[in-house]
Amino acid sequence: MSADGVGGAAAMGPVQAPQPWAAERDGARAPGGERYGDRAYGGDRGAEHYGDRDHRSDRDDRDRDRDRDRDRDRDRDRDGRGERDDGGVGEDGGRGGRDERSDDTGGEDEADRRARAAWEERQQREGERFREAMQDPLAADGAAGSTRAANRARSEGRARFSIRGNSSVFDRTRFGHAHFGNVYMGGDDSGSAVLGEVPEAELRRLSLTYRAPDGYQLLKDALRERRVLVLVGPPGTGRRTTALCLLEELTGAGDDVKDPDPDADADADGEGDGEGDDGDFAPGRVTRLDVSSLGRILRDPARVARRVARGGGFVLHLPDLPGDWSPPGEAHLGALAAALARRDAYAVLVASPSTPAGALLTGRHALRCPAPPAGELLSWHLTRRLADADDAGPDALDRGERILRHPALRQALGIPTARLRPAETDALAALLVRHLRGDLSRPELLDRCGDLVRGQVRVWFADARHRPVVTDTGEPGRPGRETADDATRVLLRHLAFRVALAVLDGEAFSAVADAADRLTRELLSARMPGRDHGRPVFAEDWDGVLAASRAEFGEAEDESLAGVPLPVRTVHYQGPAFAGAVLAEVWQSHHAARAPVVRWLRALADDPRPQVWVRAALAAGELCSADPGYGFAELVAPLASARSPRRRYAAATALDQAGRREPYRTAVRGVVDEWAHGDAAGPRWTAALVLGHGRAEPDTRAAVELLGRLGTRDDGAHLQVASYALTRLAAGSRAAEALTLLGEWAGEITGDRRDLALLTGVRLCTARCDDYWEPETSDDDTPDDRGGHRGEGGAGGTGEPAGRTPARAARRPGRVGAETVAGPASAVRMPGLWQPVPTRPAVPRADTAAVDEGMGLRRDWPLALALAVTVPEAAGPLAGLLWRVFDGHLSGERALDGLCAWLRAAEQDAAVTADGRRTYVFDRDRPPPGERPDEAAGELLRALVWFLPVLVREERDWQRLGWALEAMAADPGEPMDERFVGHVLDTVGAGLRAAGREQR
Predict the structure, then answer these.
(1) How far apart are CA 124 and CA 620, in angstroms?
(2) Residue 484: closest CA among 470, 464, 499
């Protein structure tokens, strides 16, 4: 290696050098041990590797057969020419001898032609079978690359459900009766406020406790100038409190406010009508009006103004849900403002943006109510409550502030403290004070923190319970049918949007809106069957819906179009706890909604966008863990039995998600075992994919053997999905054991297991890391998932080596009489198929946390190189498998494409720009003055030149590498730089010489 750490193979800098590999246990030396001269083969071929007989002998036999056929054809052609030159006379000059030889030759030619035709047909079938098995498992749905996008969507979506203490969105769903404080602190605005005069004591308390948000002065100036202000904001954000504070500041002192004199005003204005409706207006500086006053404002704004005390004001809370009411228009508000100005009075109307009143924001009198400063309000509440808690200790405030910043509390809340609403800040402060006083333990505090989000979700769905059903009388002589008023339809649309957002949280807004529309139709059909339900057009106020749903827009990148990251507008909840709380509320508290939700989730499995159907499958898995019998029968089983590969993939994703924790994992293992041994093709396909996810079967050897039998059953009908699943299983901490077994299969003479191993090797060679890899560690992993990565004695703390799982019971759940899969001489039984696992010690599983970290840093690398660097124990078995892949008749061409992709990626990784020209990290010993060295630059190149020597075992391997480099250097479209080609050949040659000296 050169001084800059780029060239050579003796050391790799951040990349670990090769270790003595598992191949030495089998009595075989590690690949790459031959001796080479300067780019020339100089040693013997050495012992065979990973098998008793090299499969090259079969190919050599076929080559000799082809050469013999060519020689025979050439001899026949020469004989034919000789016969024609001799005028058809044979060696003895007689006709009889010529006829006898001609008959014999004709028979041999016919047999040769038949044999050749049969051989070509067999080769063509094998080639077609190989190409078909190498396709994307979802290619039948017409979406190339869908599994790549599905894997990425699955990795991102799993994190959405791994939140809060025990990581289950259904484990803590109760809602306690938390105290939300007084109404003046911005409690639940959807509740009924006290009507009539606001006491002066309450107004004075507001002036002392209110924390003005940003933009408060703008609201105050607008109210002073216009006399009427429509304050628009979601329920629970302190709108009424802000309205009362505005009126408290702008109205005069109590002694300056005069009681209204209706008779005098009527005479002065000439508008008295003698109606006896004055009793609804109580005299006082600030008055709360009932919603029935809205009709009076629409009919006669001047009359309403005359009932307000001079110098005073009133607050009117408009309904928070659409219904049989209409908001005032600009004309009504203008007339009310003019009448109030004559009395030096003010009015504030509180409205929700998700109602028709939200349209007033385009007018003159409406403004949005800014969010209060949650952090400042929370600190103030904590200080206020601790002032009355003498037994909390002298440092209680400091301890409370530290608890608020603790990650455990923030995770338990499931919503950033900056997004808390006023009443929630008061409730959280009350819980903290109880904990500081010793009334609540730490687990109780964390559990009660989740009540804040669950309480909000329960309020959302409570309104739907009490919505009346309107009966349509229908035509004369026919019974009426149940229907829903407009308010109910709008409410169901809002609820459907919240459920869709819970499933697709953080995805593209268009996907969430489409899914919400589908669910709305399902809910309306369940409520009113037999009717066609349309959708509103140009009627959605999404800003209002998002505000009422505590959601907001965002920006992200979408790679579903040809893998190119493109910007897309997304939508997400303000906190991660809302998604699980919404699903739990629907599934556990509204049983009648289960059927439409299940139909909706199954329909989403047909959506061509991976971001939609994968997230729907993850949600289905969570629902199955809440009610396994119902969820499996209604969601998983129908999807697994479908003909569509996408639906089967969704079923596998749902099963894997449901098996994240015990005892569900044991149940999922039993289901997978039953399906794998069954006769139905769909469930077998699904079982193979579940095994590939790696969670259902903790024993790597058992999982690989079962996938091998699944892939070779029924003439290799499931080779495609089995090779895909094996690649997924090998792309992680289980790589060493899985690749060792695959190397043994690849060393077999012939057979489907050999083909399956070669197919898996091609996938490993041609894929990018994030095409198959996904993080294995998460908050909900049990010890057998983590592989002892914290230094335990074993996977389950049993004292066994890391990565080894304790032997399970002899009988698997759901499988009567199944064999035990444990120990060095264990076996996996399938109907009609039985083969013992070779007696060989198991390869320990790698540290999953370290593997996740390393693979995450190299997620854009070629998968094989990322595995070799991140899991050093797997480098040897991987090299042995890939060497056979490169040397295979059908797999070699595809593997060569993968090698070229490695070289292209390494060239791009090592390229740097200096002084406007392209150069490479190996061109300079040290960076120029003032330039910081990039430690990551060239890491992929260092990994490549370290790993290539172990793949070059024979002269033709070296020739293959040279040919690939020369071909890319001569590529007219994108020629590879000659300096890079020379550097790769020099460093790989140096590595081969070093390996030869080490072997000697």
Answers:
(1) 42
(2) 470
